[in-house]
Amino acid sequence: MLVGPSKCRNEDYIRINVKFASRVVTLGHILSYVPVPFRPFVAHLIYPPSDKRHLYNHLKPMIDERRTSLDSGSDTTVESDDYLKWLVEATRNKPDDMDIVLRNMHMNFASIHTTGLICTHMFYSIACNQAWQTEIRDEARHAMKEHGWTKKALEEMVKADSFIKEVLRFHGVSSVALTRMAVKPFTFADSTTVPAGTMFCAASRAIHFDSAKWVQPEDFDPFRFCHAARTELNGMVTTSYDFLAWGHGRYACPGRFFASYELKAILAYALVNYEIFLQGGGACPKIHWFVAACMPDSSATLGFRRRPGGAT
């Protein structure tokens, strides 16, 4: 999706991107306390530029290859139709290879930590209930029998979609959403005025647990969104004033469509091929909070037991 099948399986490339994704949040938090003139210096101390050069060395040959193919008109293969190619194509009139590398790093950051957090919450939740596993597994097997590993099959996994949406409601990645900064003084309809530079956001977790908006919001109901008649408004990617996991409005997360397919594919593959359980049994692991971030318990251990006929 981002750089093609060969590079995305390169362990060194993966290591550097994960390292960047894990450090950038902490770095941003630290830099918020540093006076603006000193931020570049402090940033280089915490995250040295050597990793950027290392990633540049990984991607430079691929950038050159895609640029040559585009210039010659010979790039017609589906395999090379990835994010890296799109960046090369978008910058043909003003090529800047380091800028392409940095944009790729930022895209990896946007997708790695959020998907990783939700996947962990997802597996912790499903490991606590074998009946849920059976229902979603049966649905996935039926969809794949009809359509194979295709987009159509994933779209028919209604229970998987509902389960992941409930994970997003019940846990999510943050207790707030729609974080914005006023670029000029702004007055709301109730006459509240905020000066330029004011940061504000919506309390998404409070909304997701509001009993006036949700039936028994304190209970994790995996098939909550299957109870009503199935419409597009129930889908995981649909945003509303009551469901803010992806944000809302014009600037709702643009990657949520890809993320929804990714999460459903991961869940379906895991359940079709494995039984998932918590090592040592017990209740579902508790969440922890880092400022506004909802963090899964890093001390819990998941077990995967291969099912008969499962993948090797």
Automatic annotation (TrEMBL):
A molecular function (GO) term: monooxygenase activity
CDD domains reported in the protein's UniProt record: CYP503A1-like
Residues annotated to bind heme: C253
Co-factor requirement: heme
UniProt xrefs under InterPro entries: Cyt_P450, Cyt_P450_E_grp-IV, Cyt_P450_sf
Entry keywords, A to Z: Heme, Iron, Metal-binding, Monooxygenase, Oxidoreductase
Stated family: Belongs to the cytochrome P450 family.
Name under which the protein is recorded: Cytochrome P450
Species, as recorded: Hericium alpestre
Lineage: Eukaryota, Fungi, Dikarya, Basidiomycota, Agaricomycotina
